[in-house]
Every structure is written in C-alpha cells, then in structure tokens.
Amino acid sequence: FWSQVLERLQLKLSRPTFEAWIKTSTPEELTDTALVLRTANPFAKNWLQKYYMPTIVEVVHDILGHPVEIQIKFVPGADGIGSDDAELFYPFTIDSAPSEPLAPQATNSDLNSKYVFSRLVVGPNNRMAHAASLAVAESPGREFNPLFLCGGVGLGKTHLMQAIGHYRQEICSTANIFYVSTEKFTNDLITAIRKDNLQSFRDHYRAADVLLVDDIQFIEGKEYTQEEFFHTFNTLHEAGRQVVLASDRPPNQIPRLQERLCSRFSMGLIADIQPPDLETRMAILQKKAEYENMRLPREVVEYIASSYVSNIRELEGALIRAVAYISIAGLPMTVENIAPVLNPPVEKVEASPEAVISSVVEALGVSAEDLKGSSRRREISVARQIGMYLMRQHTDLSLPKIGEVFGGKDHTTVLYSCEKMKDLKENDPNMAQTLRQLSDRINLASQARK
Ligand code: ADP
Ligand code: MG
C-alpha cells in the first residue's frame, strides 16, 4: 500500500520535495480511520503538515477508497537518520540534491557523496586550492603532483580532496581512486606486517591512479609509516599517478617529518585554504539552504555568518541547530528567535587600538575625531560607546588607557559604556548583530595583517 502511495506522490510532487520529505517518512500504523507516518526529521514533520497534507490525504483516500486522518509523528533516530545529535536534526542528510544529475554515476564508496565540487562555495579564501583541485581532477599526474592542500580545521580540505576523487571518477569511471586517512594507511600497514602480508599492502596502494591521503600531518614521528609512504609515493609519482595530500599545516611545519618526505611533499603545489570572509560564509549558508529548499531571511544568514568566523563545520552546525530549534518550537525564522540557541563563540582576535577605531569609523560612518571628541549627538555617542566596548574586547588596554585613546575620557565613562553594551548585546538582537559584525571586521582586519 505504501509503495502505491509513494508512486503517486512521486508523480505529484517535485523530486527534491519528494526525496526530502516523503521518502524519509515511513508508515507506522494504518487503521480504518487513521494513518500514522513516522519521520526522523522534525523539520520534515512541520513541512509535511504545513504544505503537503492535502496532497497526501488525497492520494491515500484515492488508494484506500475511503478517507483517513493522517498523523505525522516525529521519532528521533527513526530509520537510521541521525544516529548522532548533529545529524539528528540535520536537514541535509538527503542524499540526492536538486542540482545533481539523475543519471547513474560512477560512485566510490570511500567518498562521501556530499563532498562534490558542486556543493563547494568558492571564495577568495580557497580560490587557488579549488582551481588546482579542478586541474588535478581533469589532468591528474601532470602539473601539480603532489597537490598539497593545507589549512585550519573545518575549512574544507577533506571536502575539496574528495571532490577531486568524485570528479575524476566521473570523468574516468575505471580509474582507481583511493581516499584514505593517514590513520588508515598506518593501520593497514600495521595489519599487513602482522599478517606477514606486506606485498599485498604494497600492491594495493601502488595500484592507485589517484591517491588521496588526508591529514598527513599525523604521519609525524611515525618512522615506519614514513618509510613505507615514501616508497608508495615514489612508485606512484614515477608512474605519473596523482597524489593529493591534505594537512593542517605546510610540510615544513610538520615536526618529525623525514627531510626527504618534506621535500617530496613540497615538490608539486602547496595550496592553502584560509578562513572564509563574511560574504563567503553567507554564500555557504545560502547554498546549504538551497539544497534544503529552504528560504532563509537575509538577516538570519548574515547573523549566523557573522557569528562563526573560522570553522565552516561550526558554521554549518549553527545553521542546523537554528533550523532544528525553529522547527521544533514552531517559530518563524528570525534573528530574535534563533539567538538563544546559537550562543556564538565570537572568536576574539587580539587587535591594535587603531584597528578597532578604524573598523568603527568605516562601519558606522563617524570620524575618528568624533570618537575622540565630546559631541553628545546620539549616533556619535553610541558609536563611541561601541568603540570602547570593542576596545575592551579586542585589546589588553586598561579602562583608563581606553579612556585616553578616546580623547581623555574618564575610566568610569569607559566602564559605563562597556556595561551598557554588554547589556544591550544580551537584550537587543540588533545591537548584538552590530557588535558581532564589527568584531568580525576587526578579526578579519587583524588576521589579514598577521
Ligand atoms: P577540513 O577537512 O578542512 O577539516 P572539511 O572538508 O571536513 O574540513 O569541511 C568541514 C565542513 O564544511 C564540511 O561539511 C564541508 O562540506 C563544509 N565546507 C567546507 N568548505 C566549504 C565550502 N567552501 N563551501 C561549502 N561547504 C564547505
Ligand atoms: Mg578533514
């Protein structure tokens, strides 16, 4: 019965809608008068109730020949969706997304199906790494061999690396593409030695057309793994096979790495990935939302994006939490409503007093003289209070010193401003957002200078 319902609904609904909301639900109980559907995704529950109920009712009525009442039940963890907390409410677990082709594709089980080029936002921070990765996928073993991707945690190294794998596999379905973590490489090696089976280990890895090794920094100090990897690398490289490595730091900063490996790692291209700027972070959130067929108000995107600066995984996590909260609470998606669940860890970067002043000047359109002067015009005095608060957040200056920077104000004035801003930050979402954006600017300016 349910498969009939699915068949009909599939015809009536758009594919993304069907995949996202219907396919993830299962019938739990069917009586003469009622059908209970179960979903593991609280967002699906809301969505189905809000928009698709009449269609489902109609189809079920049609098939059963009599009307039934339909209930949707949210059961956390049902049908395997969301085995951990983050995934539980993750509305993007749907494996087929709107813009991906329908045709069967070459798949590689080592690779996460979400880590494809089409899902990656390209910004100034990863443009070069992205371009190099594309080039490598299109013509492996040529220009950039090895390609060494480096960047901080959660900036997309694994995503980019696997995108190379997917794309290569798509271009050449017979290619041997291996993705391994350094840990797995090490474990495989240990197992091979223990089973006296080194030859099959070597045969395996040396058969790769493209070898993707993630988190290669973990090879540090592992002498035997380094030895073996050195030979694997050489064999592949000499045969014109592509090697791609990812690391949280450049080769010459990996401690206890054999000199000869360090030089091998550096002989192709080292492409780094930086933290994304605000605009790129917003684009990343927008893209996630698109895959979800979800409309996010611009302020919400901006708010989340300005709260999470240097780790895209955390940025995504924040969106997931926000969506989950909103859907469970049944609230509209607004900055005010999501603020309580985000508790943004505004990452503070030490900045110079000048950097703070110039960020305030640029963003709020007041002059530095105004900030240091004694005008009581409202926009100026608010900007001054904001400036003092940010100075307190981003520098080590004492209250009296901050007073001096602002043209010789008393330290009690500085204290008052800081307290007031702290209060507004907690109680006035608009002010909270302004402060966060300013912090973000200061962080970016200071990071850029470093
Ligand atoms: P790393 O390996 O550098 O720690 P990941 O590749 O695991 O980081 O990325 C963390 C998360 O952020 C992943 O879910 C990934 O899809 C996402 N992500 C990273 N960079 C981008 C990007 N440029 N556009 C869209 N999503 C991204
Ligand atoms: Mg990674």
The beta-strand count equals 8
What is the N-to-C order of secondary-structure elements (H for helix, E for strand)? HHEEHEHHEHEHHEHEHEHHHHHHHHHH
Radius of gyration: 27 Å
Bound molecules: adenosine-5'-diphosphate, magnesium ion
Helix content range: 40-55%
Structural class: alpha/beta
The separation of the N and C termini measures: 64 Å
Largest sheet: 5 strands, parallel
Cα shape? flat
Mean pLDDT: 85
Strand order of the largest sheet: 5-6-7-4-8
Low-confidence stretches: 78-104
- Measured by DSSP, the beta-strand proportion falls in 5-15%
Question: Layout of SSEs?
Answer:
Layout: H1 2-12, H2 15-22, E1 25-30, E2 34-39, H3 42-64, E3 69-74, H4 85-88, H5 127-138, E4 147-151, H6 157-171, E5 177-181, H7 182-194, H8 198-205, E6 210-214, H9 223-238, E7 242-247, H10 259-265, E8 269-273, H11 278-291, H12 298-307, H13 312-329, H14 335-342, H15 353-364, H16 368-372, H17 378-394, H18 399-405, H19 411-427, H20 429-449
This protein binds adenosine-5'-diphosphate and magnesium ion (MG).
Magnesium ion binds next to helix 6.
Keywords: ATP-binding, Cytoplasm, DNA replication, DNA-binding, Lipid-binding, Nucleotide-binding
Organism: Myxacorys almedinensis A
Protein name: Chromosomal replication initiator protein DnaA
